[in-house]
Write a structure and sequence with these properties.
352 residues, alpha+beta, Jelly Rolls, 2 domains, seven-stranded antiparallel beta sheet, six-stranded antiparallel beta sheet, elongated
Length: 352
């Protein structure tokens, strides 16, 4: 097997165990002391991290090929060290911050050339692995901030935000159309109770069976008092404290035995609690994915006849939109199903 020669790169003192006490003559490498090899590695580390990574990885790959070639000539196996002792593991570090230290060192119990080469091969393979891990990560780390700076330049006098604590959501682009609807006390199910400010609805631990009226939902649903037949409105619902929910709009004429989204006059997005988010309108389900939105923004544009749902906890992301008809006034509508006591939905204030 012919080894590719190294390009004036000093070899580590790996071949000291050969009969001649020097490197293999057919690979074209010259001898050097361990300190010289370490100094050259440190000097190379002053270059850019990607460049150093490529050069060191190439060097180690060639050294691995050399040792394997020598093993083949001596008819030795290429596997790593066995359970017996061997030479101490190699440990290197560069000023560029790359840690090439191996997990542990091994006591010396054998000085045979075969064992030394086998241990050297093992150490080189470990170094090769660490190089790949270190420089792959650092290249990605260096490139990412550059892309972010191009998209959002910042002043050197302003510190970068702490990525472990995301910045609060900025003002909504729908803020000028924001409303804060309140729950209607006539329509909500007997299994629900409304907060004093009228902006939260909770599955009650003690159903209020004494409440009656033909306008009250049989299922665990509720409408808001406000109704819209024109204009543009926007509101947000905090869904974090409800395991199964649906939010949307419905006409007051929706039958109290029917389910939100399963009628011609109701629309919603729905979290089933089984890692599935769906949209319902015109009695048709559209599966949206498996990500659960913590806060849902609802944009009702009756000028254009459009309804849109957004995930808005951290940033505004469109979930679903559909055409909507205002032949009958539409109310904000909610469904908390599963009858889990304590589950709640809250209409939250919007940053303006």
């Amino acid at each position: 097997m012919q080894c590719s020669p190294l390009k004036s790169v000093p070899c580590l003192p790996l071949m000291s165990a050969t009969r001649s006490g020097s490197c293999c003559q057919n690979v074209g490498c010259r001898t050097s002391t361990p300190s010289q090899a370490a100094e050259q590695i440190k000097a190379a580390a002053q270059k850019s991290i990607p460049e150093v990574g490529r050069e060191l990885a190439e060097l180690v790959e060639q050294l691995v090929d050399i040792v394997r070639s020598l093993q083949s000539q001596r008819h030795l196996p290429e596997s790593g060290p066995d359970n017996e002792g061997s030479t101490p593991s190699m440990s290197m570090s560069s000023s560029g911050g790359v840690d090439l230290s191996l997990a542990s060192s091994k006591p010396v119990t054998s000085n045979t050339p075969e064992r030394k080469m086998r241990d050297i091969l093992h150490d080189l393979e470990e170094i090769q692995k660490k190089l790949r891990e270190n420089f792959t990560w650092k290249e990605a780390f260096e490139e990412q901030p550059q892309a972010e700076v191009q998209e959002a330049p910042y002043s050197s006098s302003c510190p970068l935000p702490d990525q472990s604590h995301p910045a609060p959501k900025s003002t909504s682009r729908f803020a000028q159309w924001a409303i804060s609807p309140t729950f209607d006390l006539r329509s909500h199910s007997c299994s629900l109770e409304v907060s004093k400010d009228g902006r939260a609805v909770t599955v009650s631990r003690h159903p209020q069976t004494h409440l009656g009226g033909h306008e009250r939902f049989v299922t665990c649903q509720a409408l808001c008092s406000q109704a819209f037949s024109s204009g543009q409105q926007y509101w947000e619902v905090d869904t974090q404290h409800c395991s199964h929910w649906a939010v949307g709009v419905a006409s007051w004429g929706m039958k109290r035995t029917q389910i939100l989204g399963r009628t011609q006059d109701s629309y919603c997005v729905e979290w089933k609690g089984t890692s599935q988010l769906s949209a319902w309108h015109m009695v048709k389900e559209t599966v949206l994915g498996s990500d659960r939105p913590k806060v849902v923004g609802i944009w009702l544009d009756l000028q254009e006849g459009n309804l849109a749902f957004y995930s808005v906890a951290d940033q505004e992301t469109l979930l679903y939109e559909c055409p909507v008809s205002a032949s009958s006034p539409l109310h904000p509508a909610f469904w908390l199903y599963g009858l889990n006591p304590g589950n709640s939905l809250t209409i939250r204030p919007i940053r303006v």
